[in-house]
Amino acid sequence: MPLIATRGAASAQGFGEFAEATAVNYIENVFSTYLYTGNGSTQTITNGIDLAGKGGLVWIKGRSGATDHALYDTTRGATFDLASNTTAGQTTQANGLTSFGTTGLSVGALAKINTSTATYASWTFREQPKFFDVVTWTGTGANRTIAHNLGSVPGCIIVKRTDTAAAWAVYHRSLANTQYLVLNDTAAVATDATRWNSTTPTSTVFSLGTATTVNASGGTYVAYIYAHDAGGFGLTGTDNVISCGSFTTNGSGAATINLGWEPQFVILKRTNGGSVWSIVDSMRAWVNTAGGYDAIVSAEFSGAEFTNSRGFPTATGFEFTSTDSGIGASLPFIYIAIRRGPMKVPTLGTSVFSPILATFNGTTVTNTGFVVDMVINKNNVAFVGDNFLLDRLRGSGNASDQRTLSTNTTSAEVLSSGRVAFNGSGGASITIQNGFLGQNTTANNIVWAFRRAPGFFDEVCYTGNDVNGRVLSHNLTVKPELVILKTRNSVQSWATLYDFTGTSGAPNGRVYLNSTDVNFGGGLITAANASTITLTAGFNSTPNTYVSYLFATLAGVSKVGSYTGTAALQTVACGFTSGARFVLIKRTDAVGGWYVWDSARGITSGNDPYLLLNTTAAEVTGTNYVDTDTTGFKVTAAAPAGINASGGNYIFLAIA
């Protein structure tokens, strides 16, 4: 049998499945947003952060009900609780956070962090130079300095007296060194030289005055110290992962913030008063869409999570907008933003892709082992229906904000409810809700779950601006080899661009995901590289909104490639060692459907059930068209013209 050569870039940088030869820091090692449901007893939260060995802060807030915030750090020790929404001193909660571990933490039955069936968010900040530090001291009542180990000039310092009631004091680099904010209050920035002694922090110390909130004689204090654009991360040690900045809204009450990377977490506050400390993150719901469906909790407020608009993340920063009354033009804000992960490049397909065969009965699909960013779902047995695509960035964080596209239609995005929510425990699960697609509890459904990761898969949402030659940033970190574009707010076909082999990176092929059409040639994208794609006006018109999904070849994980049909058994080598668990094939020189196989439904000799992304048809079983091979997959002699016609041209995406 012939061995088919395929094309594509390769990368072997690790995702954490192997030990680093030298110490390399990534955001996923030092920060986590972990969502969980209380059980009223004890539970361990495994978020992958080493708190026992490295130290850090855990900040917990109830989402579904009114609860005080709960802040615990390794310097003060487990069970010692602070609440950002009160002035209260430290309390001892024997059933609060009970221990810090090497891969997370454990909590007891304290009601505000572990009530049965209540939902919670936890944010973990690990101590790491150029990211975050925790220090404690006893006050002297005299001007002084406090040493820290941040290894860079702090961007923000949050101070709390722990032995008695006192307001939280916040220093931020965007304010004068005579100014401060109060974390437990919506008040405007205040001026008082006795907070920071009118002295800007350095890379080794920060200064305190005589104010009792920061330095009363005999008082005990803790400070949480955040870095700003200090580098220290990534393979070269120069990548930034945290930024403490400011912005002022324009005449429409909006602002564009350029960080140079996509954030996953932001806490922001209007500095002229009357505005809450808003905490948003992409795990709960911080979505690239209009409508006010961002999930927000406030640092100074005990109330449950609420929804409103706080803008949305972009590939290079975030856009700020708000539907809150009173947030309008020329208003100043400060923020702390943390970079989205993972930064490591995966080495295992199982860390970024999972095919799941599920029964839809209101239960949670678990054990993906990774944060899910996108799913494609189809009822695969005796059911004619759409292939639904939902993703975290467009919005699927709660019951009322689930934005669905269908791969088999030209239809616009639908705002729906009761389908798939991405807010399962730790983000590594997705909640399948009763009634989705109208299935009964015995119907089988296939869910293909994907994680965004460098070198493998990325997603970018954007709004058209009519510019022919618009340069759109992405975070794939390599040149894409397969790009799928869809207009979100109007009827238009799914454009799929492939074969990015020219010197400019422009695609040599274009087909449509919702049809069987032949190759239309390039177009729509005129250039592509490891950080940008350049668009024509064809998929960039005002006021349309768009989504783009970018895939690439990654050694041992994925393969974007092509082959020529032989009408005989042939092996398509993908560089894998245990075979493909997902195979997508499309003929490009003649009409042909978008065939999909996966290991959950079975890729076995004699029975390879397939689905078509471009139709509503039910699964076809009893065929022998595609088989497994340790290096990738095989196309058999029994395969039809849509898969293996002699001389036919085919493109594919395979995932190990």
Task: Give an overview in words.
- This protein is mainly beta and 656 residues long.
- It has 6 domains: 27-126; 132-226, no CATH class; 242-339, no CATH class; 353-450, no CATH class; 457-551, no CATH class; 556-655, no CATH class.
- The protein is 4% helix and 38% strand.
- The strands form 13 sheets. Strands 28, 30, 31, 32, 33, 34 and 37 form a 7-stranded antiparallel β-sheet that branches. Strands 11-18-13-14-15-16 form a 6-stranded antiparallel β-sheet.
- A hairpin with a 6-residue loop joins strand 14 (169-172) and strand 15.
- The longest helix is centred in the first third of the chain and has 4 residues, at 27-30.
- It starts with a strand and ends with a strand.
- Mean pLDDT is 91; it is low at 1-21 and 434-441.
Describe the structure concisely for a colleague.
With 656 residues, the protein is mainly beta. The chain is built from six helices and 53 strands. A hairpin with a 2-residue loop joins β25 and β26.
Itemize the secondary structure elements and their pairings:
Layout (H helix, E strand, L loop, with lengths): L2 E2 L22 H4 E7 L5 E4 L4 H4 L1 E7 L7 E4 L6 E2 L9 E2 L4 E4 L3 E4 L3 H4 L4 E8 L5 E7 L5 E4 L8 E6 L7 E4 L6 E4 L7 E2 L1 H4 L8 E4 L3 H4 L4 E7 L15 E7 L6 E4 L4 E8 L7 E4 L12 E5 L7 E3 L3 E3 L2 E4 L11 E8 L13 E7 L4 E2 L8 E6 L8 E4 L4 E3 L2 E6 L7 E3 L3 E2 L8 E3 L11 E7 L6 E7 L6 E4 L8 E6 L7 E4 L10 E4 L12 E4 L3 E4 L9 E7 L6 E7 L5 E4 L8 E6 L6 E5 L12 E2 L13 E4 L2 E4 L5 H4 L4 E7 L1
Parallel strand pairs: 1-47
Antiparallel strand pairs: 2-10, 3-9, 4-5, 4-10, 6-7, 8-9, 11-18, 12-17, 13-14, 13-18, 14-15, 15-16, 19-27, 20-26, 21-22, 21-27, 22-23, 23-24, 25-26, 28-37, 29-36, 30-31, 30-37, 31-33, 32-33, 33-34, 35-36, 38-45, 39-44, 40-41, 40-45, 41-42, 43-44, 46-53, 47-52, 48-49, 48-53, 49-50, 51-52
